[in-house]
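Risk register update: the risk of archive-format incompatibility is retired. Evidence:
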Amino acid sequence: MDRTGGETGECCVGPGLEVSAVSLHLGEEPVLHGRKGACNVFMTGCNLHCLFCQNHPISHLGVGKPETPEGLRVRVMEVLDRDVRVLSFVTGSHQVPAILESLAVILEGAPRTVVAWNSGGYERVETLRLLEGIVDVYMPDLKFMDASAAQELADAPDYPDVARDAIREMARQVGPLVVEGDLAVRGLIVRHLVLPGDLSSTRSVLEFVSRELPAGTAVSLMGQYVPAGRALDHPLLGRRLEPAEYEKACDILEVLGLETGWIQEPDENA
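Archived output:
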């Protein structure tokens, strides 16, 4: 889309920065926040239309406001000045030029900051190459490997092919996870949310990681699915993930020998 000419495309965001929130966050994988937390910048909009989006108001309803690079720097530094070292951009794939402009200002005043990129995995390789040498830690979702599920659940039938190419490129740029002390300083963490009814094609996702990504690639196998957004009315997505479904996913992870990463303990209150 020609955003400078007034077009906005699927994400409904123009050429400038649009930010939903900047906050201290302790809810990521432990190596992303350590003891002090991470500064998460939640970008407005998204290039996917996932039925089950946990950030539905931000991603699909446009909750947020325009921001300037200097304005974002001020908001980010309020968090980083608390001895926070990780700056994580959440769902920023559609705002890369504006984010890069902001980072040029932010990193000048915070050179030791680890830059993390938390995305849906639906990104062009050409776009990711603009981030090479700037992003230290990539945290893409790998949502599904079935084109029909990707069409139904995210309105993106090409998601499996696009995400595979994108994650291979991320792996090329940063390699396996490197942790110093209690924080990740470089590397790739592949996130996978297990969906009810195996709509997430979990075995195929984990086989891709095992066979095509570098040995030691970290996997975060997420079992916290709850219905949200438009998923509430879906015949399969309208329920919580059952413990047995998540246990099966963990078994696949073990059989494939994917030992680096995280699984979640069952929620006794679910």
